[in-house]
């Protein structure tokens, strides 16, 4: 039984190549897109990618959190994969923090309109929001949020690694479940108050500083959660294809597929809830968000987004056989991650770069972030055995049957 | 409906039932059905049952609901009785979506429940033969059909060898008929004396 992952040289090279592409695109973008002072597109692309991939990595922690609290046993066989994915949170969180601080304290008002204090003085709407959309609150909230995410992510990971050296007995099993539940419970509350509430308003929605939508955060959550699930599925398939994790089979993949299917529909539900209320009320300060997207240059992207993220997963993942097929799931997972990346693109780009350009720059930077995630996850997977051998639900996971 | 002869074996434990099912199938006997008090994971696979088409039926009911909702509402608001509602277009697709969704769910849910009942031969006033009164309580009951190629005595001894506790022979209807379970069920009345009688 191969339960110790060794990072293949090919995977390492791939991740370095992807990171290289990312840095190269960044440098080309710096020159081609008018430098760091002239371009909203340059910073918009970085903001979109760093937020998206940070939230995708955070899904690793969230996945462990919800499955632990739900007393789920089925995922224990591949629990080390979301754990390893979550360890990208400290890295990507650091990157995002630097980006946000440059945007706010560098007064990049092409991205964050509200950082232009002179303009805010003459703008009654932004003036009214200035307590929330101000450098002080923004920075404090960002530091607290990122700090707590990183703290809990590392804590959950370390607990899991520690538990490998425990003696297996009913008592230690009970203790393991209890302390995992306590920390996961704490994390879920923090996650709900951050990703489920204010964080996406601050980081992403404020690129459209005049506009607001209470659905926005849940929408962001649904988008990243389904991409994170796809990311976990991809790593599981990768390990499986390379002969690791013989105890994980199509039953586990089937359940991951069901979650991807269900949350693709959940995403659409939130997409529609946000759209329909705006469409119905037809108030100018709300329709300003949809104007460039539905009737402006981003019309194609807007509907493509709906096709990739709703119609295709709905039809492709509906059949049981597809969810149990490793090859089909690989393509669908990649499709879903790309679709939600495109979703984030159409959330940010209309505000930061106004016109629709072929997103070579945004995509290139995105590949760089994918490289970081692959690199960190592979390193972390190699750090510990692939099976959390003392987890009381391990047997339940091995004999899992959907 | 034709009545057939069955040899019925009762098992106490699903851990005994599983290998028994496999051995009975390997020996070539025809399993009519296995009755269990709760859903047993993997039993359908062990019995070699084909996958149900219930979900295909559900999909068809679903798209029927979608089509019904969309076509009816479009016909009403564009052709039959166009109204100006808040200056919205006569074909306001976003406003149709919630109703379309609801009708899709309603059609597929109701359709699947009825189809499921039909496939399981369940309906009010319909009766089926009960092989053992404790098959919904704590016994795992396997009914093997006595065909022209097998004989009852042989099946009985085979069932005993794979761990069945209680073995008997029954002649029973395979399908359903009109009747009530609380009336004239000789099997239940004969075998079980109610505790409060």
TrEMBL record, chain A:
The keyword Coiled coil does not apply. This is Quinol:cytochrome C oxidoreductase. It comes from Chitinophaga agrisoli. It comes from the Bacteria. The keyword Membrane applies. The chain crosses the membrane at residues 12-32, 52-72, 84-105, 131-152, 182-204, 216-239, 259-277, 297-317, 329-348, 360-378. Keywords: Membrane, Transmembrane, Transmembrane helix.
TrEMBL record, chain B:
It comes from the Bacteria. It comes from Chitinophaga agrisoli. Signal peptide: none annotated. The chain crosses the membrane at residues 57-77, 97-119. Keywords: Membrane, Transmembrane, Transmembrane helix. This is DUF3341 domain-containing protein. The keyword Transmembrane helix applies. The keyword Amino-acid biosynthesis does not apply. PANTHER family: LIPOPROTEIN-RELATED, QUINOL:CYTOCHROME C OXIDOREDUCTASE MEMBRANE PROTEIN.
